[in-house]
């Protein structure tokens, strides 16, 4: 992702009521290995990667790039939210959370904070989100975040759903710098 305007990357940590969204650090490496080797996490994203392969290949500071936010709760990484260049000038929102963080509303809170930050950094820039239609939780979150369906298509052996977020207004109202 190109840096928005004169803002530098990473931005100052984004804070919500329960979370801190920040740049990756070396202490996050074990959580990144857990995240990408988790069979539960891998269910809708092409499968888990072998832990041994991740341990050998993962850099000292994983996820260190513009557009990647580590999601921290009580001092520990619980997931990541990403913004990446997408189709037709859109920016794609992505997220992965450790299974222990599921069901607590952290994904909605973190994604909402990132979307609010992005809307302030790039007013009017469209954001899209892609998920498998079989991922019921992700479909509910997309609706909650204000994404509207623009297409369904087959890819990776499954039906995919692409939504675009209305570019006006706040999503979460919880982000503070």
Tell me what the structure shows.
By secondary structure, the chain is α+β, with helices and mostly antiparallel strands. It is built from five helices and eight strands. Strands 1-2-3-4-5-6-8-7 form an eight-stranded mixed β-sheet, with helices on both faces. Strand 1 and strand 2 (about 20) form a beta hairpin. The longest helix is centred in the middle third of the chain and has 16 residues, at about 105-120. It is globular and about 40 Å long. It starts with 13 loop residues before the first strand and ends in a 12-residue tail after the last strand.
Mean pLDDT: 89
The poorly predicted ranges are: 1-6, 172-177
Rg calc: 16 Å
> What best-fitting shape do the alpha-carbon axes yield?
globular
Oligomerization state: single chain
* Proportion of helical residues: 25-40%
Q: Helix and strand string, N-terminal first?
A: EEHHHEEEHEHEE
| Sheet with the most strands: spatial strand order | 1-2-3-4-5-6-8-7
Computed structural class: alpha+beta
Q: What composes the largest sheet?
A: 8 strands, mixed
- Total helices: the number is 5
- Please report the distance between the alpha carbons of the first and last residues: 21 Å
- Count of individual beta strands: 8
Strand content: 25-35%
Q: What's the helix and strand layout?
A:
Elements: E1 14-15, E2 19-22, H1 29-37, H2 39-42, H3 51-57, E3 68-73, E4 76-85, E5 91-97, H4 106-121, E6 127-132, H5 136-144, E7 147-155, E8 158-165
Parallel strand pairs: 5-6
Antiparallel strand pairs: 1-2, 2-3, 3-4, 4-5, 6-8, 7-8
